[in-house]
Amino acid sequence: MTDAITFPDVRIVLVETTHPGNIGAAARAMKNMGLSRLVLVAPRDFPNEKAVWRSASASDVVESAVVADSVADAIADCQLVIGTSARDRRIPWPMLEPRECGEKVFSEATAGNAVAILFGREARGLKNEELQQCHYHVNIPTAEAYSSLNLAMAVQVIAYEILQAARGDAPLEAPWDMEFASAESVEHLIDHLEQTLIEVGFHDPDNPRQLMTRLRRLLTRVRLDAMEVNILRGFLSAIEKKIR
Fold first, then answer.
1. d(CA 156, CA 35)
2. pLDDT over threshold 60, residue 2
């Protein structure tokens, strides 16, 4: 039955939400589809009774919401991060359609991976640096005449696709011999890589030419596992030792 389907390893992350009512409406959309983990990154006005009122029967989702200071904190322990994006970017990122997103999220959560789906500010969406912390971007297609979706609508569409994947025959993730690296460990690797590239004279931080953005895209695209991160960091440490 639909009401028996839940997704404890999937979190919805709302970034710098302006209106508390939108938090409540998003919580209601989540609970409709079996999602309950809500993370709020630096909300402008929370807690607020308007959020509880707009949530209807999903007040438990609002009341159990976790508040984080930054996107990095909100996704630190996640192995899969997907960011909603309404437009093409100068440097394209791996993209998912909503249905593909639902299947991917269900598959990864079933495999035991912690998943975060990021939704940006009501007026401006996610910043480039936030989207660059994601493995995939997802875009919700709309009619050209009016392409703006409100926050709760966007959450509803993605949450619906996750539920449909769980109710159908979505392909499961193939087993892997190591757990995937967390977002936090990949961030540490990228920081380590940048410092090493500076030390060997390959990267000039005053004239970056999008080098680190492209390397970040590479490292997130290949979905590193925990052992691979350790190997790469050991390799970087050996380089640093040699040049020093």
1. 10
2. no
